[in-house]
Amino acid sequence: MEIILALVIGGAFGAVLDRIGASNPNVIGRMLNLTNLKLMKAILLAIGVGSVLMFGGQMLGMVDVGHMSVKTAYLGVFAGGLLLGVGWALAGYCPGTGVVAAGAGRRDAFAFIAGGLLGAAAYMATYPAIKATGLLDAILGGNATLGTVPGTDYPGLTGLPGDTLGIVLGLVFVAVAFVLPERIIRKDTRLPAE
Predict the structure, then answer these.
(1) What stretches pass through the bilayer (predicted)?
(2) 170: phi > 0 → left, psi -120 to 50 → alpha, else beta; which?
(3) Per-residue DSSP letters for 27-63?
């Protein structure tokens, strides 16, 4: 039953991503060059609402904090984030939107997925050398959270209540989604129309 539920939720999420244009590299390109921020507004709204619901649910006892997993912070995360951002800008896809685009029949998405798999294989093959550089050593308290979350062993970096902080930050994301203009740069001559 869990597999069926995962497939249904994943399919619904993919359909929403496709509907808002996240599987179209032209839409992503216009977001990244600040000529059309509708997708960015949708992303900020989704993160904000999800944060409010998750942390509000934890405060009300409706969401089990035992399902929360905090990954270790290390410099390699920042290096990987930069690589992801550059790849996203060049290809017009991130890993999730690439899979959605492939599901929607975009042939270029299959090349993107193949490149991602080759990159993952290269990382696995060079993992011992990368580990030896210290890029994967824990920083900032390792598995720390910004605020302290009751019922977990994760240290809080600020001492503020994590649930409250999560709700406040979620509301900030929602507010930014509403006040952000639809475009910062008026005209885009580099990307073709949809």
Answers:
(1) 42-60, 110-127, 164-181
(2) alpha
(3) HHHHHHTTS--HHHHHHHHHHHHHHHHHHHHHHTT-S
- Which three-class secondary structure state does DSSP give residue 156? strand
Residue 8 predicted with pLDDT over 90:
yes
Is residue 147 one of the residues assigned to a domain? yes
For the stretch 163-173, pLDDT in tens is 899 899 999 99
Task: For residue 136, report the phi and psi dihedrals to the nearest 5 degrees.
Answer: -105, 10
Cβ contact 147:160 at 8 Å: yes
- Axis crossing angle, helix 95-103 with helix 2-19, rounded to the nearest 10: 90
Question: Residue 93 corresponds to which tokens in the numbers above?
Answer: 């896809």
Structural domain containing residue 94? 1-179
Enter the tokens of residue 13: 């999420």
User: What's the total number of domains in the chain?
Assistant: 1
Give every CB contact of residue 186 below 8 A, 6+ residues apart in sequence.
35
Cross-strand pairs, 74: 138
Query: pTM of the prediction?
Result: 0.77
Comparing CA positions, the residue from 105, 92, 104 lying closest to residue 25 is 92
Q: Domain for residue 15, yes or no?
A: yes
Question: Does 92 reside within a domain?
Answer: yes
